[in-house]
Design a protein that fits this description.
12% strand, alpha+beta, four-stranded mixed sheet, 136 residues
């Protein structure tokens, strides 16, 4: 049972952002500070990748562990209330992500997904991002 009224829940959910999230901003600042330039949320590409590096034919998605069901992550659980709704919604997000990655790869793009929980170790994330962007 939800502890909030429908109006309270609506107000809470309306504050959930789909772009310019805190994890996305961390990745953007990190890459910009290292001299990488990118386009944001390119609507011409499947899934509107968070960061697009057109000259390199590479894209980066910054995924929240909860919203994109990061396997093995403690933040990826399904809420206890409205189980059918949440399970359906989150599984749809995951299948849509997989389809978008497959479409991008078919179009010749290289794809990297950075998970929110990975941002706890900035050295590892920095290495992962630089390796992805500098590798042919």
């Amino acid at each position: 049972m939800d502890t909030l009224t429908p109006a309270q829940r609506s107000a809470c959910m309306s504050r959930v952002r789909s772009k310019d999230t805190k994890p996305e901003m961390i990745v953007r600042r990190l890459l910009h500070g290292r001299g990488f330039r990118y386009r944001l949320h390119d609507k011409r590409l499947p899934g509107k990748p968070d960061l697009t590096f057109a000259g390199r034919r590479k894209v980066i998605f910054v995924h929240g562990c909860f919203w994109h069901m990061h396997e093995g992550c403690s933040h990826a659980g399904i809420p206890k209330s409205r189980l059918d709704f949440w399970k359906s919604k989150l599984e749809h997000n995951r299948s849509r992500d997989q389809m978008n990655v497959a479409l991008l790869e078919k179009m010749g793009w290289r794809v990297l997904v950075v998970w929110e929980c990975e941002l706890r170790d900035m050295n590892a994330v920095t290495t992962k991002l630089e390796n992805f962007l500098n590798k042919e």
